[in-house]
Amino acid sequence: MPRTIDALLVVDVQNDFMPGGALAVPKGDEIVPLVNRIAAGFREVVLTQDWHPRGHVSFASGHPGRKPFEAIRLRYGKQVLWPDHCVQATEGAALHRGLAIPHARLLIRKGCDPRIDSYSAFLEADRRTKTGLDGYLASRGIRRVFCVGLATDFCVAWTALDARQFGFQASVIEDACRAIDLEGSLAAAWAKMRAAGVKRIRSETLLAA
Ligand code: VGL
Ligand code: ZN
After folding, report:
1. Are 172 and 199 in contact (CB under 8 A)?
2. Phi, psi for 192 (deg, rounded to 5)
3. How far apart are CA 161 and CA 200, in angstroms?
4. pTM higher than 0.85
5. N- or C-end of the chain: fewer Cβ atoms within 10 A?
6. 165 has which bridge partners?
7. Domains by residue range for the chain, with CATH
């Protein structure tokens, strides 16, 4: 069972990442009931929302001649271009309606700067701008984070890696995540996470009585 030093980070369980959504993650909807069950065991739950302004730099539509899922170089490094998704205050950006975590007390919205993407819930893609999540968790006495949500190989992985950077223990609950898996991105993400000391666990570990 989770302890008082633990927080659950529920990453981007939003309509646009569901089958039929603008940036669908295969089987993304399957995790929702499991995420709810896992969350019920945590006192501290943080939700995140990908929350882009219209015309966001990560949208392929704003880069003439480029297509979704191609990568380009921006000032801060490599950027994969995506279909327009999770536009602020649209239905696609809303959390999945089946998500039932009434006791979650913090919602972090990320990717709000028109010129900077943010897969991570801690640090934007310029690797300098903080969301404030590290300070929140530290001031609540949190020392371990457990990550679930979408997508395993992008926002979940970057969030777990940054949790390690900020000195937290970090685990990813693999069966409560689903991946985009673009050109080997899933295997690469797991390798990076392993090297950084992120634990890869399954929900049984937490749900077992
Ligand atoms: C995500 C691509 C673009 C994610 C967000 O939540 O993993 N992926 N924006
Ligand atoms: Zn995004």
Report:
1. yes
2. -60, -40
3. 12
4. yes
5. C
6. none
7. 6-54+85-207 (3.40.50.850)
Residue with tokens 């028109």: 114
Provide the strand spans (E) within the chain.
Answer: 6-11, 44-50, 71-74, 77-80, 106-110, 144-150, 169-178, 199-201
**Nearest residue CA, atom 1 of ligand 1?**
155
Task: Confirm if 22 and 28 have CB atoms less than 8 A apart.
Answer: no
Look up residue 10 and give its amino acid: V
Ligand 2 centroid–CA 143 distance in Å is: 27
Active site residue 12: yes
pLDDT band at 209 (very low <50, low <70, confident <90, very high): low
Q: How far apart are CA 66 and CA 107, in angstroms?
A: 32
Q: Tell me: the pLDDT tens digits for 126-170? A: 999 999 999 999 999 999 999 999 999 999 999 999 999 999 999
